[in-house]
């Protein structure tokens, strides 16, 4: 057991003994803060004890964030958001950078970034990642693997915000550092290779994207096997690339492999499964199979609204796709309703200048 985990469990034990947190029913390792503690912590505003309680709360919330590759992770994540908001406000009000030099605190900040990013709260995620990056660079150095993981996740965030040059700089820094530190074939390195592939595809560089995807896929299949979720994620990405290139039969084979594998590994309602369902819908639309496309989009939308939120960017992507499909079917009122919903959501979450916002505006 690592030092961070020991300190976390010690903190949890103390808080449980004094009934300041409660274990989450049906969640392994999940905790929630007692409502009275929320109120009391607010009362402590400006007092010396606040920083110490902020440390404990940050550890409990940050270390309770589940990985996205677990079944129904979004259920726990949604429960954690109100507690994360309380912790975030404490952190932002603090005058001192009390988390600098404390690996548990820095890791917990990074996990809060993951939580916010998964829930589509991108400004909040960016704030947490930047604090974690600052802490890791000072405590561990710019080339430490923990630092590079945060750099990579900042790249993901910038890509989702449409800041592609900034994303590329983060990805390349993370990849170069990881290749030196742990080798070209390590799964963490391969994750960064896959992310660069996604970025190149978004930049309209299909040859570079395919090279990255195939390198990642070969490495994942060797290290983790053909049915691992990381492998299947890259399979899905290759499917998207082939679809963009008009290689529809190759794309369909990739999507179906990814869908079957994710349904077995993660379940029918997991967000990774639903992303592939959405992609299959787009493929069927391109093939002129409009009824099959509609079934896929509706399944994806219903699942994403349940697992994420109505205004999550992934949900909005499916809303936009349904709008395009309805327009192709001549269902113009339904198409307009979908476009307006997508536009309102994109403007709120991504801003007026994001490419997704522009795409929907053109369709309207």
Automatic annotation (TrEMBL):
Keyword set includes Transmembrane: no
Domain of life assignment: Eukaryota
SMART domains (UniProt xref): TPR
Magnesium listed as a keyword: no
Gene3D superfamilies according to UniProt: Tetratricopeptide repeat domain
Keywords: TPR repeat
TPR repeats by residue range: 106-139, 148-181, 190-223, 232-265, 274-307, 316-349
Name under which the protein is recorded: Uncharacterized protein
Organism of this sequence: Hirsutella minnesotensis 3608
